[in-house]
Design goal:
Largest sheet: 3 strands, mixed
Shape: globular
Number of domains: 2
Oligomer: single chain
Helix content: 40-55%
Strand content: 5-15%
């Protein structure tokens, strides 16, 4: 099951841009097939038929990108199902087009990446808020939070934070400040309370949207579980099976 594990790990890095959670956790991965020759096909589904095409595009594009980086040969295919713009998204992404080429009436050059960055920054802020509240409950002071670096905490507590930093191109080394603004600058002790409050607000919005989307997905597919990921036997075609 090594390839199935690698596919699952890759897809875990693909986030819903608005919900700041992996598409695997949200149930957006309907099925994955792995062929004997290494070909991988991923089929995605979303909570509603009319989910914003720019968000859908980002998830399809990101899934194709992480699958392309897998260390074995074979085709990589990502198919969006049950979406009003599925044909345009699947066709455009498969041909390596940009969103502005596939949807010229909806896109301005550069705006899609800026949209991605906006939601990544919200997620980054929300992660800091959750971590900050946890440390304050343990008796840390605002000055200690401001002075702290990523390396001052066990790695397991900063995994998500470091991933968001890397995605935003911000410093994520052990000696980097634990709490930073959108530009990677350390937040001073006097500004941390407001910084964490804004992060809490962002987090509440993300959590509310997540609950709505999870409910819509459950209702739309009537609780149907994703089909999952198999490891194809030698000489067999790619099929549906156990989720990676």
């Amino acid at each position: 099951m090594e390839r199935a594990t690698a596919v699952n790990t890759a897809l875990n890095a693909v986030l819903d841009p608005e919900l700041d959670r992996p598409i695997t956790e949200l149930g957006f991965v309907k099925a994955v097939s792995i062929g004997a020759g290494g070909a991988v096909e991923v089929r995605l589904r979303l909570p509603t038929y009319f989910c914003a095409p720019n968000f859908a595009w980002l998830m399809v594009e990101d899934a194709r990108r992480v699958l392309a980086a897998l260390p074995w040969g074979g085709d990589r295919t990502v198919v969006l199902e049950d979406h009003f713009a599925a044909e345009e998204i699947n066709h455009g992404a498969a041909r390596g087009q940009g969103f502005e080429e596939a949807f010229p009436r909806l896109a301005d050059t550069g705006r899609l990446e800026e949209l991605r960055a906006v939601f990544l920054r919200k997620g980054h802020l929300a992660v800091q808020s959750r971590l900050g509240r946890r440390l304050l409950e343990r008796g840390w002071t605002f000055q200690q939070l401001s002075d702290a670096t990523l390396g001052d905490l066990p790695e397991r507590l900063t995994v998500t934070l470091r991933r968001r930093r890397t995605a935003l191109g911000l410093p994520a080394e052990p000696d980097s400040a634990l709490f930073t603004d959108d530009h990677g600058h350390r937040v001073p002790a006097g500004g941390l309370e407001e910084h964490l409050r804004r992060g809490r607000t962002a987090g509440v919005g993300i959590e509310a949207n997540t609950e709505i989307c999870e409910g819509l997905l459950h209702t739309r597919y009537d609780g149907e579980e994703p089909a999952g990921v198999p490891e194809a036997a030698p000489g067999s075609p790619a099929t549906g099976g156990e989720r990676a």
